[in-house]
Write a structure and sequence with these properties.
Length: about 400
């Protein structure tokens, strides 16, 4: 949570946290040891006065039940089942805490990105909702793994969600993705990156990206010579949790070190404010780590991006017209990578699994990097796709649409 919180603060927004122990726990270490440290620190006193009140709210809301961990997350129902929504207490507590926060801050309109609980809470308070989503989260999409036939009997939180919806006087849903649809639904990207049927009631807005005004690259990056290609490796958080490697991007770091060590190129490795694990140190001579760089400026200076397939990373590359080599670390990211490759704007290098460990074929990665570096058509495709996507207006257009909706909904 540290990296998003820092960026929200830099943008000048308040980062409001719902008033419930489960959200305090989610902000930090979510392990049992993390809970013990939180309790012994006494941080709960400021919000809950006494330990009994804290624990009596926390225990019923703990998301104990979950679908089995997997890298193949098929759709929003499956994702929700993995993220605690099979637990009635968690859903009820989250919905209640979010409603309280919306009322306390006097929200006239709620703008949500991919949080069905927030949409439920807004509906319960009769607050108009704008959702900003990737197409794969829309009920008219084919989900996150659209290139395969899904297995039958995937876990779903719909029965639990419907019980809490009924408690709040709201109609039932058939799929969790219905709670990703707002009174106004904005889809990031464009039809080529985020396809939906023509009948879907959505508005495409192109790339939603932000960089702090005046942000510049560190001097050492600016001083790198242009006689060698500059490769930007962005892994995101190498390790999200001590409990599971499902979301981890350590495989990106290790594979790039193995493939590019001592190659005749500059390699800038960034981790989005997250620390670099000590076991990869020392880095090869042609590598240098910087915890955070302004993304648009870094993409503009780079010849090729290598990243984990996150949606923001894909859009950053296209926005600046730069090709990418993508090592997708789980299903939603593979969806993004496949669509980038279909545009001819990059290459996908698959992550394989051996006894639960993520692996990448180093020779395949090295070959993909060389191909993207030397084939001018890939860079041209990225530049053309970026121009088409930017024509949808991006963040400025999304803001205009949200303001217009807010005025028509009576919010201002």
């Amino acid at each position: 949570m540290e990296a998003p919180s820092r960026l929200i603060a830099e943008a000048g927004f308040d980062n409001l946290i719902p008033r419930h122990p489960i959200y305090d726990l989610m902000r930090g270490d979510q392990s049992l040891q993390g809970l013990v440290r939180f309790i012994t620190s006494g941080q709960w006193r400021q919000r809950y006065d006494n330990l009994f009140r804290f624990l009596s709210q926390l225990i019923p809301a703990l998301p104990i039940k979950s679908a089995p961990n997997t890298l193949e997350v098929w759709n929003m129902d499956h994702a929700g089942a993995l993220m605690g929504l099979l637990n009635e207490g968690f859903v009820r507590a989250s919905c209640s805490a979010l409603q309280e926060m919306m009322v306390d801050c006097g929200a006239d309109v709620v703008v949500d990105f991919w949080n069905p609980l927030a949409v439920m809470a807004a509906r319960a308070q009769n607050i108009p909702v704008v959702t900003v989503i990737q197409a794969d989260a829309h009920p008219a999409s084919q989900g996150f793994i659209w290139w395969k036939t899904p297995p039958s009997h995937l876990p779903t939180p719909v029965p639990v969600m419907n019980k809490v919806l009924a408690e709040n006087g709201l109609p039932p849903i058939s799929t969790l993705s219905e709670l990703c649809v707002g009174d106004l639904t904005l889809v990031v990207g464009m039809p080529e990156t985020d396809p939906l049927p023509a009948t879907a009631d959505v508005t495409y807005v192109g790339p939603i990206l932000w960089q702090k005004p005046g942000a510049t690259l560190p001097d050492w990056i600016k001083s790198l010579g242009r006689e060698k290609p500059l490769i930007w490796v962005y892994s995101g958080n190498p390790r999200y949790s001590s409990k599971s490697e499902t979301l981890d991007s350590m495989v990106v770091v290790c594979a790039c070190i193995a493939a590019l060590a001592n190659e005749d190129m500059h390699v800038v490795l960034t981790t989005g404010h997250h620390p670099l694990p000590k076991e990869v140190l020392p880095l090869p001579a042609n590598f240098r780590h910087e915890p955070y760089v302004p993304g648009l400026a870094m993409a503009d200076r780079s010849d090729v991006l290598i990243h984990h397939g996150g949606y923001g990373s894909c859009q950053t590359g296209l926005y600046m017209g730069k090709p990418a080599v993508i090592i997708p670390t789980y299903a939603e990211r593979e969806s993004n990578a496949r669509r980038m490759a279909a545009l001819g704007a990059g290459a996908l290098v698959p992550v394989e699994h051996d006894r639960g460990k993520k692996q990448v074929r180093v020779e395949a990665l090295r070959a993909a990097i060389r191909r993207v570096l030397t084939d001018p058509s890939i860079a041209s495709n990225a530049a053309r796709a970026g121009k088409r996507m930017c024509a949808y207006g991006g963040a400025a257009q999304a803001a205009r649409l949200i303001e217009r909706f807010s005025q028509s909904a009576g919010g201002g």
